[in-house]
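Lab notebook, design round three. We kept the backbone fixed and only want residue identities now. Task for the bench partner: fill in a sequence for the structure below.
Input C-alpha cells:
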C-alpha cells in the first residue's frame, strides 16, 4: 500500500560503524525520566549525518536539524528523474542517496545511488522482477534499502521469489538469497534490518481471506549472516494476514539482544537475536500490522488497522527476563494510525492517522496532549527534524507542525505530485520522493 512506505528501526549501535559520519553528541537534550515505574530512563540520542534506513539512524524517525515552514519549486537543490512512481523510501550513506525504482519497460527493479551534492547518478544496478497481485497504492519498488558496515541490503518479491540481496557501496554483488514464492493480496512492502551481526527480514505472507484456488502461506522471521548471507536462524510464526513491520532491536537488562516485531497472529513479540528463540509475545492486534514497531526504553509500540478503520496503537512493556510476562500498558483507538509509523520526540510520540489527524501522546501513560485534524489522507510516515514534524499526504501536501504542548501548524507546502514514500533527512538535506522523481531541499543551518 502507499502504505508500504514501511519503517525500519535497527537500534543506534548497529549504525555506529566507520561509515557513519557522526557529527556530535547531544549535550543538553537528555530525555527526561518517564513518570511510570515500569518504564526505563531514556538515553540521549547522538546526532548523525546519515539516514541509513527507513526510519533514520535509531529507528525513531527523528534527527536534529532545521526545517523551513515553506519552500517552493525553485528552492530544490536538485531533482533526479526515476521514471516511475514508487513508495519505497531513501537510505543515505557515504554522500549518496540509495533507493529502488521500477522500470515497467524491462520489468526490473533498479537500485540507484545518487550524489547528495548535485543529484548526479553515481551508479545503478538492475534486477529482474516478475508480477504479483498488489494493492492499488502499493508498487513493485516498495522496500527501502538498509545500509550498515559498508554494505547495502535490499529486499523485494514476486509470485515466485522473495529476494534478499547484499551489495557493496559501489553496487557490486556480495551475496543474494531467494526464500521462495511470495503470496499476499497487498504485495511486498517490508525492508531488511541489520541487528547485531545478522540481516533480519519479516517473511509474513497471506493465510486468511485468500482468493479461490490459493492455499494458506507461511509466516516466519528469517536471519542470515550479514557478511556471507548464510542461514543463521528461522523462527516460524502464526500466519494470518500479510504484515509489513520492519524489525526493531532491544537489549534487555541481562544483555540479551532482541529482535522486536509485530503481526496480527503473534501481536508484539521479541526473539533472541542470536538464536531466534521466541522470548515473549502478547496478542494485542485483531487487524493487519503495516507500520513498523518502535522501542522506547523498555516499551514496544505498534499499530494495526484496516482500510475500513478500527485502528489502534498498543504499548507493551517488554519483560526484563524469561520469568516475567509482557504487559499491555495502554491502548489508543482514537486517531490511531494504520499505515504511517509514529515518530519519537523525547518523552512523546508524534503521529498522524491515515485520515489526517495529527496527535501528540505522552509515552509514559498514553495521555493525548493534543489531537487535531490537519486534512488529507496519509501513507508516508512523519519525521521530526529539530522541533518540527513533517507529515506529507498522499496528494503531496507537506504539513509542518510544531512539536510542543500546544498544537501549532507552522506551514503547508504543495509538492505538486503524489507521495507514498516517507521523507528522509541527512546532513542538512531533505529528500522527498514526489511522483516519479527524487528531490533534494538543502536547508540553511541558521534558520
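Proposed sequence:
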Amino acid at each position: 500500500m502507499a502504505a508500504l512506505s514501511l519503517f525500519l528501526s535497527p537500534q543506534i549501535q548497529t549504525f555506529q560503524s566507520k561509515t557513519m559520519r557522526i557529527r556530535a553528541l547531544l549535550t543538553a537534550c537528555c530525555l527526561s525520566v518517564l513518570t511510570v515505574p515500569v518504564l526505563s530512563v531514556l538515553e540521549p540520542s547522538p546526532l548523525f549525518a546519515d539516514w541509513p534506513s527507513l526510519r533514520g539512524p535509531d529507528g525513531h524517525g527523528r534527527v536534529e536539524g532545521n526545517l523551513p515552514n515553506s519552500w517552493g519549486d525553485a528552492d530544490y537543490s536538485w531533482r533526479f528523474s526515476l521514471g516511475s512512481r514508487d513508495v519505497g523510501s531513501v537510505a543515505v550513506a557515504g554522500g549518496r542517496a540509495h533507493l529502488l525504482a521500477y522500470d515497467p519497460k524491462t520489468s526490473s527493479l533498479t537500485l540507484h545511488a545518487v550524489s547528495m551534492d548535485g543529484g548526479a547518478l553515481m551508479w545503478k544496478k538492475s534486477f529482474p522482477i516478475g508480477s504479483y497481485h498488489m494493492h492499488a497504492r502499493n508498487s513493485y519498488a516498495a522496500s527501502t534499502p538498509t545500509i550498515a558496515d559498508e554494505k547495502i541490503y535490499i529486499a523485494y518479491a514476486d509470485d515466485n521469489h522473495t529476494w534478499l540481496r547484499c551489495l557493496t557501496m559501489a553496487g557490486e554483488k556480495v551475496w543474494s538469497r531467494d526464500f521462495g514464492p511470495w503470496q499476499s493480496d497487498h504485495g511486498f512492502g517490508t525492508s531488511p534490518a541489520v541487528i547485531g551481526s545478522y540481516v533480519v527480514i519479516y517473511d509474513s505472507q497471506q493465510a486468511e481471506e485468500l482468493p479461490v484456488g490459493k492455499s494458506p502461506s507461511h509466516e516466519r522471521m528469517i536471519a542470515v549472516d550479514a557478511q556471507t548471507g548464510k542461514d543463521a536462524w528461522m523462527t516460524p510464526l502464526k500466519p494470518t494476514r500479510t504484515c509489513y513491520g520492519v524489525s526493531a532491536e532491544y537489549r534487555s537488562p541481562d544483555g540479551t539482544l532482541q529482535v522486536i516485531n509485530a503481526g496480527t497472529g503473534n501481536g508484539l513479540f521479541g526473539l533472541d537475536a542470536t538464536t531466534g528463540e521466541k522470548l515473549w509475545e502478547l496478542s494485542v492486534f485483531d487487524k493487519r500490522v503495516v507500520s513498523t514497531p518502535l522501542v522506547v526504553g523498555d516499551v514496544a509500540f505498534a499499530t494495526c488497522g484496516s482500510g475500513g478503520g478500527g485502528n489502534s496503537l498498543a504499548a507493551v512493556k517488554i519483560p526484563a527476563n524469561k520469568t516475567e510476562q509482557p504487559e499491555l500498558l495502554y491502548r489508543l483507538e482514537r486517531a490511531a494510525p494504520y499505515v504511517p509509523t509514529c515518530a519519537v520526540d523525547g518523552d512523546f510520540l508524534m503521529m498522524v492517522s491515515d485520515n489526517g489527524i495529527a496527535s501528540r501522546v505522552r509515552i509514559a501513560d498514553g495521555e493525548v496532549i493534543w489531537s487535531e485534524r490537519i486534512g488529507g489522507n496519509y501513507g508516508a510516515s512523519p519525521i521530526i527534524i529539530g522541533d518540527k514534524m513533517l507529515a506529507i499526504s498522499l496528494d503531496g501536501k507537506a504539513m509542518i507542525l510544531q512539536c510542543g504542548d500546544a498544537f501549532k501548524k507552522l506551514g503547508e507546502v504543495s509538492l505538486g505530485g503524489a507521495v507514498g514514500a516517507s521523507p528522509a533527512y541527512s546532513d542538512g538535506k531533505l529528500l522527498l520522493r514526489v511522483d516519479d522523481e527524487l528531490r533534494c531541499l538543502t536547508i540553511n543551518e541558521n534558520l
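Keep this in mind before ordering anything: Confidence is low (pLDDT under 50) at residues 1-48.
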